[in-house]
Amino acid sequence: MMVLVTGGAGFLGSHLCDRLIEQGDDVLCVDNFYTGSRPNILHLLSHPRFEMLRHDVTFPLYVEVQQIYNLACPASPIHYQRDPVQTTKTSVHGAINMLGLAKRTKARILQASTSEVYGDPRVHPQPETYWGNVNPLGPRSCYDEGKRCAETLFFDYYRQHRLEIKVARIFNTYGPRMQPNDGRVVSNFIVQALRGQDITIYGDGSQTRSFCYVDDLIGALIGLMQTAPEITGPINLGNPGEFSMLELAELVLKLTGSKSKLVFHPLPADDPVQRCPDITLAREVLGWAPKVELADGLRETIAYFEKQHG
Ligand code: NAD
Ligand code: UDP
Ligand code: UDP
Fold this sequence. Notes:
Mean pLDDT: 97
Strand order of the largest sheet: 3-2-1-4-5-6-11
Structural class: alpha/beta
Bound molecules: nicotinamide-adenine-dinucleotide, uridine-5'-diphosphate
Low-confidence stretches: none
Helix content: 25-40%
Shape: globular
Oligomer: single chain
Strand content: 15-25%
Largest sheet: 7 strands, parallel
């Protein structure tokens, strides 16, 4: 099986490449290194079934593949807001090109969508049937609306061209290979705790998120790709354990033994108040549920940051 992973040099993409190589697939990793990095895939470069292509998915790509995982897109707010027009182009033009490629090669195609399609949700926890509460004009819109449009394209290609699509709505995921400076909360808190710097809580820290460990998430993506053709999603993938940012900070302090102090910064615009996946569908369709507890996943992630960046 020749499998294309776009965004394969990123955090989730590189773990996915690892798992696909392990299970015996040939992997073509496509990435423009916008937020991804060579060290994430360095260990794979000499593998006979792994190939790396530097390419921007907003441009057409002609290769022969049987499956496509479309993960290319910066995922952390500071990265996707640095060049918002490029973010929308990556989601929308990237989806069109990868769907065109899937149409020509008759490849099955999976889209890495996001819980951000629910915006600042008014329904809690969020089931897939919820249409969301998204600001179309704010600083997060390039990401949220780009991903929503990509979902629209996936379903139009499905209806119009009968493509085999799989749409995964991924909730906050963490683990080794997150970048220390990408601004996401788990990496920020761990790096700050390890360096003895203040822990930056945005707002009063009462906002919630649900954190899924990367190994659990990758298992779900591969499981979804293998489902019967009539399973299209969208399907929520995440860990329903819900924590406030204050609880997360306390847990990181406890696990690192750090004496860092909590400091409070203004809440960024349109920051969702709460987020928690309803994973009933994933349980039914994939027989999947996350296994790794937050404290255990954080221990692994802390160990990674200590080794890499300590
Ligand atoms: P990441 O930033 O580490 O990885 C994204 C990868 O895409 C990077 O390697 C980057 O260089 C590449 N990329 C960006 N624009 C590109 C382009 N135009 N052409 C080719 N490559 C491009 O982020 P991640 O956390 O690994 O996220 C991967 C995917 O999963 C993204 O689509 C993201 O939206 C989605 N997702 C992630 C999370 C999460 O919590 N990590 C949650 C929801 C959705
Ligand atoms: N495309 C691609 N690789 C392919 C086939 C298509 O990158 O192997 C791109 C191509 O640039 C096109 C887009 O995917 O613009 C959509 O393809 P589709 O066949 O749906 O549309 P059309 O070519 O008819 O505009
Ligand atoms: N956050 C925080 N301190 C930080 C970084 C983030 O309190 O140093 C908060 C942020 O405001 C948000 C939550 O943590 O409420 C999750 O942020 P992240 O950027 O990781 O993910 P997203 O907002 O995209 O879910």
